[in-house]
Amino acid sequence: MRCASLVNNDIKPWDNLNHLKMSRPASGSKTVKKSMPATAQRPIKTASKVHPKTGAKGEAKTETKSTARDAFMKKVQICMTTYNYADDTVDAKGKSERLTAINDLQAMLNDQRCVVSNILPNLELVMEMIEKNIFRPLPNKKKSTNLGMSETGIEQEEQIDPSWPHLQGIYEFFLQLVLNDAIDVKSMKVHITPRFIQSFLELFDSEENYERDYLKNILHKVYAKLVPRRKMIRKAMNDCFLALIHENYKFNGAAELLDILAAIISGFAIPLRDEHVTFFKMIIIPLHKVQTSSFFFEQLLRCSMLFLSKDRNLAIPLLQGTLKYWPFASYLKETLFLTELQEILEVCEVSKIEALVPKLFKRIVKCISGSHLQIADRAMCFFENDFFLNILKSYKEVTFPMIIPTVVHLADNHWHTILRESLVALKTILKEIDPYAFEQALAQEKKSKELRVTQDPEERKRLDDKWAKLSAEVKKKHPDYQEPDGKHLNDQ
């Protein structure tokens, strides 16, 4: 018999009984049971294939795994298909199947066995599906012709990209894929290449707020998980910011990228490495001069203050950059700069700020005497800050002549009643700090006004001689030249 040949070439007595047991008895006959040795009762492995109904569980499991793998691959292929989402009536069935497949793929991530057996071996195909969906030309939102909230007082509904319900599922799947513990670093880092990161960062320019939130969360989790790729990701982000500073004037995802940077900066070790200090001086400070910096100023301020908490010596370069890139045509940005300036001064050491005192107080005086009420009021708040008053007292030889004449003039002539009262109070405070320096600053201002009205005779003669010399040289080259006679001055 065949079964016996797998065990031994010799035929055993009980092999005939096995044969009789497996054969079908004739009708009406009785089956005779005989005792068998204990060794014969053990199951004998056979090389023949047995139908699943007969109890071959190994074959059934293999077939189940193969079926699950095929179903997974089919769902991935369905998700790779793209449609025109602008028209809901076109390919409605295919779009519905696609949404179902996306939901099924998300559910598979909850089963670790499924992740190990289906997703991990086909991670390359999964990443290809993700790239095919998210890497696309970004749509431009159509600007509504309706009046805005400032005109109507009613908040208008935001226009949502019609493809977003399909993209949201892909982003959610990608986020959960990165967070999944079964997807190890070695397998994932192969697919996170410089080209992938560059294309991924370009998506941050999307006008869809929900998409930028997903992008921020995914990039943050990728940075946290893939330690070997951190330097590459930071370099790509640096290039993105450099393009914003020197080439583009607008980047929708600047605030989200700065949020990620804030989390990265908070993890920097002390003392800071040279590359981090260079990043602060070449990226963070120049970002202040970007035309659209008001859209991400809150995040930029947070990054700046985190750097100062790591190294207080960076406060001086930041103060220099703030004064250098001070806005001149945006009242909103000027208010934001005043807020940051006050926070920087609280970190600065008074002994290291001496060279910047003239520029600093010149800017404060301009803000106080400016025509915009909010800026003037915000600048007046500096005199309520102990750190600023300490600087004012420490360098009063420089600060008093700059600020006292303006404060005295505005205290008598400012058009706004409340601000005029504040200026009168400030005038009293300054006089109490040092009455002698206060009076000396006023006297110096009166003397400078007199010098502007009456000119020194020797200075006048020097200028006239210089003018005569220049006129003589011009006549040599141009004989027809006639000197102005000054009659138009006498007529005025």
Structural class: mainly alpha
Q: What is the straight-line distance between the termini?
A: 135 Å
Main beta sheet: none
Unreliable parts: 1-60, 143-151, 488-492
Mean pLDDT: 81
Strand tally: 0
- Rg is 40 Å
> What is the H/E order?
HHHHHHHHHHHHHHHHHHHHHHHHH
Percent of residues in helices comes to: 55-70%
Q: Proportion of β residues?
A: under 5%
Instruction: Give the overall shape.
Output: elongated
Tally of DSSP helical segments = 25
Short description:
With 492 residues, the chain is mostly helical. The protein is built from 25 helices and no strands.
Task: Describe, in plain words, how this protein is organized in 3D.
- The structure is a single chain.
- The chain is mostly helical and 492 residues long.
- It is built from 25 helices and no strands.
- The chain is elongated, with a radius of gyration of 40 Å.
- The model is unreliable at 1-60, 143-151 and 488-492 (pLDDT under 50).
